[in-house]
Amino acid sequence: MKFLRFLVVPAIILLFGASAAFANDPTVIWDPLAVPVTQGGLTYYDITQAGVEYTGLTWLDNNCSFATSRGLTQFDGAAGCMYFVNDTGMPITDLLFTVNVDSAAAGALNCIYVDNTLNNPNCPSTIPAGTVTLEFNGGNPIPPSTPTSLELFIIGFSGASQSDFSPEGVQVPTHDPSTLILLASGIGLLGLCAARRYA
To answer: Do residues 21 and 29 make contact, with C-beta atoms less than 8 angstroms apart?
Structure first.
């Protein structure tokens, strides 16, 4: 496990947060936004490696004020946001977010994406009390940061208090190489069998 470092700056924002329309249930929204590199005064977590679970998370922005100041009205009334930057050196095509759900927040869960970035969330319609993992993938990836542009995304929520919906970890998963080797071996054997059959 690795603890995230705090940094201050910005760039493309992917949002995943909250809407007043779902004030009684936790809600997740995913939405990109371009932010100039010169934008300052933003505290975020730096994700530098895939395959590592980053823990020790807290809600950095109690009311998602940075997001709402950028005109992102879906964050109006949000209970909290966290900001992350993609410093992995590669596009993020899959993102896992783990949250600890108190019994007060258990029940219905709303997940909404606004555009084509990671637009195929594996998001259950109901969540139990305890540890819950949400997965976002599909569609356009989160691009890697460059020397002149940081690629930033936000995780936020509404419909529960921070103590009832507390973040535990975030991770960019990797595919197990041994699984790919096994798959390639199986396909190779099938090919040999087919070739022998018609020889």
So the answer is: no
Distance, in Å, from the CA atom of 99 to the CA atom of 57, rounded to the nearest integer, reads 10
pLDDT tens digits for 151-179?
888 888 999 999 999 999 999 998 655 44
Closest among 168, 142, 125 to 89, alpha carbons compared:
142
> In angstroms, how far is CA 2 from the centroid of its own chain?
17
Handedness of CA 121, 137, 8, 55 (dihedral sign): positive
Query: What span, in angstroms and rounded, lies between the C-alpha atoms of 89 and 177?
Result: 19
Closest CA to 139 of 115, 119, 112, 114: 119
pTM of the model: 0.74
- Those residues whose C-beta lies under 8 Å from the C-beta of residue 149, and which sit 6 or more positions away, are 11, 12, 37
